[in-house]
Specification:
The complex is a heterodimer. By secondary structure, chain A is mainly alpha-helical. Chain A has one domain: Sodium/glucose cotransporter (Up-down Bundle). Chain A contains 18 helices and 4 strands. In chain A, the strands form 2 sheets. Chain A has a two-stranded antiparallel sheet with strand order 1-2. A two-stranded antiparallel ribbon of chain A has the order 3-4. In chain A, helix 5 packs across helix 18 and helix 12 runs antiparallel to helix 13. Chain B is mainly alpha-helical. Chain B has a domain of 78 residues. In chain B, 68% of the residues lie in helices and 4% in strands. Chain B is built from 4 helices and 2 strands; from the N terminus they run H-H-H-E-E-H. In chain B, strand 1 and strand 2 form a beta hairpin. In chain B, helix 2 runs antiparallel to helix 4. The chains are: A mainly alpha, B mainly alpha. At the A-B interface, helix 5, helix 6, helix 9, helix 10 and helix 12 of A face helix 1, helix 2, strand 2 and helix 4 of B.
Chain lengths: 553, 127
């Protein structure tokens, strides 16, 4: 049986399992609480695994393994940041959010502040973050499928991912989305553990022998300018800097490198606490205490997984070799760092293991886009439709219907955009999603929970400034602007062919403090009596859970 | 802590919040609870843990990024075979995160106990 057929069969098994879950969940998907929050019946531990699953997206499984395989130690920086970010969620966000909110991030903000404007801005920000994040995942899924099974074309792959995610959400709601996420998280952890053991076994379970091999790998770069392919000296005549794979600096060097590293760190540490599909998970558990348990379990799973990226990434670098990570396209071998983990699996366990790991990556993408779809649908149906258009007059069945229609619309829009952008390099989209979440959402969430003086004007201006500054800075950054050498493939080319105006790839270091500053300054010039009066209620609710949403019987 | 407002005779004079609460808790006098000594103790206990813990992990994490970014030669020193300081510090970030999670969960038992005591009092007073 060929590699393609084996992969296809594995993909089909995954799809059948997830559709089975959706069918089972579809019978418990009538009320809004069931649709948005799985009836608040998910256990703390299960939800923790689901949160971990939402977080271990294709970007972290395929992306980090690839970043480490291509850039050594610097790639591991992502793993560290993505885990430490959970401390922000645990200490500051999870329990107060569960205690004060209902379904969405905007619930927490709208509690104290003028409802309509706050909900509208928060919902728009949620929709942008989810859409941007979703596009990155869908295009990633499309390229993965196309690379492994060349017979399926890229657009067809994107469309099938889009259709599946809409089916999960419309028929299965949050319950199906959560269980698909749990199944996938278990598969992903299992796959990563197996791969790690195989890598270590190759080195006779000697950690030092593994690192000896990593140390032998090197990468070169220029202090000034870029090192041309095949050149032995830099454009200015200086010898290139040689770094071992265990040493920092391959990705982040030069004048702006360390600053970019810190900027990325800021976006990760604060962005996680503003990702709508992660925040929404805390409403699926019965109490704030269960929300705490979720974060604990998520932190354990995510930490273990990201430590294993050492084996996946460095293992791919030593055992497969950077030069062999990619696909044969005609006469040319095209490097693709997303394939580091799947190719490592093929090297160590043959084509069947490759098929399994590819199917797990596929399941990962399906589960994450489904979670994003439901977050986007709830932002529109619950925040804009119910609370702004319908003035909060709830009609249960109409609500669920609107949310399902929204999920369908989001799916169609995402498919169209993803097909349109499918030939572009979209790696920056995930960074953008984190940067927008960190700059637009997080200062407002934290200040509305902890600062009595905070008001509507402060929140709206901080969200808009955070949103605009991160989007504009990304457009002006080297992710979008750059001068490509002649003959660059369209998938690797920059969208704007000019020298970048903003030197950092991640805008966090500018946009997050800017948004926070606006949020801290504006309330001193605008007074809003209601916002101060309702602080007592928010404060008591957040700390005691008095009047918090309860589980559906 | 927020500015304390004179609660007068049990907070009856305080205007009702203009925002409609989302559940059946509309009869609760939030400000009286907020100004109670037991609630303030809960908030104080929480802050005494959360603020130092947050400051510690932010310094530990961003200190690490500054070290790796600006002083690579310091962390490139090999410690065990070819395993260098940079990798060991990165691993210590994971351990640091798990320790803070563990300490928080242990301390949260106290928060829960204080919160339960206040809730029993509030709910008992309503009946």
């Amino acid at each position: 049986m060929s590699k393609e057929v084996q992969t296809l069969i594995m993909f089909a098994i995954i799809v059948l399992i997830t559709l089975g879950i959706t069918l089972w969940a579809s019978r418990r998907n009538k009320t809004t609480t069931e649709f948005y929050a799985a009836g608040r019946q998910i256990g703390g531990v299960q939800n923790g695994v689901a949160v971990a699953g939402d977080y271990m997206s294709a970007a972290s499984f395929l992306g980090i393994a690839g970043l480490i395989a291509f850039n050594g130690y610097d790639g591991f920086m992502y793993s560290v940041g993505w885990l430490v970010a959970y401390l922000t969620v645990l200490l500051i966000i999870a329990e107060p959010l569960r205690n004060t909110g209902k379904f969405t991030m905007a619930d927490v903000l709208a509690f104290r502040l003028r409802k309509k404007s706050v909900r509208t801005v928060a919902a728009i920000s949620t929709l942008i973050v989810t859409l941007v994040y979703m596009l990155a995942q869908m295009i990633g899924a499309g390229s993965l499928i196309h690379l492994l099974i060349p017979q399926i074309n890229l657009n067809l792959a994107i469309i099938s991912v889009g259709l599946l995610m809409v089916i999960y959400v419309i028929f299965g709601g949050m319950l199906a989305t959560t269980w698909v996420q749990i199944v996938k998280a278990v598969l992903l952890m299992g796959g990563a553990i197996l791969l790690s053991i195989l890598v270590l076994a190759h080195y006779g379970f000697s950690f030092t022998a593994f690192f000896d091999d990593i140390f032998k790998l090197t990468s070169k770069y220029c202090e000034v300018g870029t090192l041309e392919k095949g050149a032995t000296a830099c454009p200015n005549g200086a010898a290139p800097v040689v770094k071992h794979y265990t040493q920092p600096g391959i990705l982040y060097h030069g004048f702006y490198g360390p600053l970019d590293l810190i900027s990325l760190g800021l976006a990760l540490i604060f962005g996680t606490a503003g990702l709508p599909h992660i925040l929404m998970r805390f409403y699926t558990v019965p109490t704030a205490r269960a929300a705490r348990t979720s974060v604990v379990w998520a932190t354990i799973c995510i930490g273990a997984f990201y430590i294993m990226t050492t084996f996946l990434g460095f293992g791919a670098a030593t055992l497969v070799g950077k030069a062999h990570i990619g696909v044969q396209s005609g006469h040319e071998f095209v490097l693709n760092n997303n394939l580091a983990a799947p190719l490592l699996a093929e090297q160590l366990g043959g084509t069947l293991f490759l098929a399994f790991i590819a199917a797990v990556a596929f399941a990962t993408i399906l589960a994450v886009v489904a979670g994003l779809t439901i977050a986007g649908a709830s932002a529109f149906a619950h925040d804009i439709w119910l609370n702004v258009v319908k003035d909060g007059k709830e009609h249960e069945r109409e609500q669920v219907l609107v949310a399902k229609i929204t999920a369908g619309v989001i799916g169609v829009v995402a498919i169209i955009l993803a097909v349109g952008l499918s030939n572009q390099n979209v790696a920056f989209l995930v960074g953008l999603a984190f940067a927008i979440a960190a700059s637009a959402n997080v200062p407002s969430i934290i200040l509305s929970l902890f600062w009595k003086r905070f008001n509507t004007a402060g929140m709206v201006s901080s969200m808009i400034i955070g949103l605009l500054s991160s989007v504009v800075l990304i457009i002006l950054s080297p992710s979008i602007m750059g001068i490509d050498p002649p003959g660059t493939a369209s998938t690797a080319a920059h969208l704007i062919h000019a020298k970048a105006i903003f030197p950092l790839t991640n805008p966090g270091i500018v946009s997050i403090p800017l948004s926070l500053l606006v949020a801290l300054i504006v309330p001193w010039f605008t007074s809003e009596k209601a916002a101060k009066e309702t602080f007592s209620e928010t404060n008591v609710r957040a700390n005691l859970g008095l009047g918090a949403e309860v589980a559906e019987a | 802590m927020s500015k304390t407002v004179s609660t007068g005779d049990g907070g009856l004079a305080i205007p009702r919040p203009t925002v409609t609460p989302q559940t059946q808790a509309s009869d609760v006098d939030w400000q009286t609870i907020e100004n109670g000594s037991d609630f303030r103790e809960l908030v104080r206990e929480k802050r005494n843990f959360i603020i130092p813990a947050a400051i510690f992990f932010l310094i530990y994490y961003f200190g690490f990024l500054v070290l790796v970014g600006y002083f690579p030669s310091v962390v490139e020193v090999n410690v065990i075979g070819n395993i260098n300081l940079a990798y060991l510090i990165a691993l210590s970030e994971f351990i640091m995160a798990w320790i803070i999670v563990y300490l928080y969960v242990r301390r949260a038992g106290l928060f829960d106990k204080l919160a339960d005591a206040i809730l029993t009092k509030v709910k008992g007073g309503e009946q």
